[in-house]
Design a protein that fits this description.
By secondary structure, this protein is mostly beta strands. The chain has a domain at 13-265 and 365-380: Neuraminidase (6 Propeller). It has no helices and 31 strands. It has strands at 13-14, 16-17, 35-37, 48-57, 64-72, 75-83, 91-93, 109-114, 120-124, 130-134, 142-144, 151-156, 160-169, 174-184, 191-192, 211-215, 218-224, 229-234, 242-245, 256-259, 265-270, 275-280, 288-289, 302-305, 311-314, 324-328, 333-338, 344-349, 355-361, 365-371, 379-380. The protein has a five-stranded antiparallel sheet with strand order 1-28-29-30-31, with no helix packed on it. The protein has a five-stranded antiparallel sheet with strand order 2-24-25-26-27, with no helix packed on it. Strand 5 and strand 6 (75-83) form a beta hairpin. The chain is globular, with a radius of gyration of 20 Å. It starts with 12 loop residues before the first strand and ends in a 6-residue tail after the last strand.
């Protein structure tokens, strides 16, 4: 898989762990670790222990979905939880039966995205590519037929589902024939978008497939080539495109583009050991650099756009104190707000003030933490399961 860190959706925004490993709406698969998930006091007194894996927000709401892994007898199994109050309380939901890889079903999780509070998608790979959909808020799931087996990017809007496919060989090292497909949210009928460019890992070809982002009827497709970077934009659900030359989006592995309106875009671009961040207020035609210290993508940290002009940037626990900054004015101003103290973090903000994070402490202890004051203070959350 080329895309490894998570994406942001309109409204309730989910950040990504910037370590290279991703465009819109992708959710990070967090490494295995344990946290205590306490049932209601009216139920069993003992706590179940789960490992948090995915934190998926719902756009324009306080609803968030959480996937955990825990013990089911002698095996490990997944549980999905749903909160409608920004993480104050959670209720159990169902999760598709996923084949475990070496006894670890969470290792097959790739993406979890929601178009609204009821319609969502869970993507599984890479050993067994599959896409599951729910239309009732994760109470039940069904498998979606894909246009091709191998995929590496999934993007949703309230009305359209986009997926990027490729053809790979030699254990996914050599890939090419990248295509982007569009379907209504039911995933029953797929049509291919225009083949804007063809790429693979052959001589004189780009090394990375297209990165895709969408907002309403707007679609962006990013091409990261050897000598230049191009951003294609469509205003009709990907039927026709206009190409921009975007030198500020240069990257060694392709940028992650996050749209929060038809005109306002954020992007993070790995440049080797470091990561650069840029913002556009004209739909991607021009870009400006974001004020920041040096950001090293190899030491954890996270980037979380929240509104058209506000984002959070966490530099990781080894960067000093404070390490969490609020970026305003489209990234032109950076204000220190607190110390998240996470060696790695996955952030989800429902507003400028309210957010959740799956936080790694001491590199081996994972917690779900919550802020209500824009990141100045974070409290460990006791989650009430039912």
């Amino acid at each position: 898989m080329r895309i490894e860190h998570d994406r942001v959706h309109n409204g309730f925004v989910h950040s990504r762990v910037v370590a290279r490993g991703a465009v819109s709406f992708l959710v990070v698969v967090v490494a295995a670790a344990l946290f205590s998930f306490a049932p209601s006091t009216s139920r069993a007194a003992t706590s179940e222990v789960f490992s948090p894996r995915l934190l998926a927000p719902v756009p324009h709401s306080k609803t968030v979905y959480l996937v955990t892994q825990g013990a089911c007898g002698t095996k490990r199994c997944l549980t999905m939880w749903r909160s409608t109050d920004g993480g104050r309380s959670f209720a159990r939901r169902s999760v598709p039966l996923i084949r475990a890889t070496n006894g670890d079903p969470a290792s097959s999780l790739d993406q979890l995205v929601f178009a609204n509070e009821r319609d969502g998608y869970l993507a599984v790979g890479p050993s067994a590519f599959a896409l599951y959909a729910t239309t009732n808020g994760a109470r039940s799931w069904h498998e979606v037929a894909l246009p091709r087996k191998n995929w590496h990017d999934l993007v949703v809007t309230p009305d359209v589902l986009y997926i990027t496919t490729d053809r790979c060989r030699d254990h996914f090292v050599i890939c090419g024939d990248y295509r982007v497909w569009r379907s209504s949210t039911d995933g029953k009928r797929w049509s291919a978008l225009p083949a804007l460019w063809r790429t693979g890992t052959a001589k004189n070809e780009s090394y990375y497939g297209p990165s895709v982002a969408a907002y309403g009827n707007e679609v962006w497709e990013l091409e990261s080539a050897y000598m230049a970077t191009y951003l294609w934009r469509s205003s009709n659900d990907g039927r026709t495109f206009t190409r921009y030359v975007t030198p500020r989006l240069g990257s060694v592995a392709g940028c992650t583009v996050t749209p929060l309106s038809a005109f306002d875009l954020w992007a993070d671009c790995p440049t080797g050991m470091q990561v650069s961040f840029v913002h556009s207020s004209d739909g991607g035609a021009t870009w400006s650099s974001i004020s920041q210290h040096q950001f090293f993508g190899t030491v954890g940290g996270a980037f979380a756009p929240v509104t058209n002009t506000v984002a959070y940037l966490d530099y990781g626990v080894d960067s000093g104190t404070p390490n969490l900054y609020r970026l305003t004015e489209g990234g032109r101003r950076a204000t220190p707000v607190g110390d998240l103290q996470c060696s790695q973090a996955s952030l989800a903000f429902s507003s400028v003030a309210d957010g959740l994070a799956i936080c790694t402490r001491d590199y081996n202890r994972f917690l779900l933490v919550r802020t209500t004051d824009g990141g100045a203070q974070w409290s460990n959350e006791v989650l009430w399961g039912s």
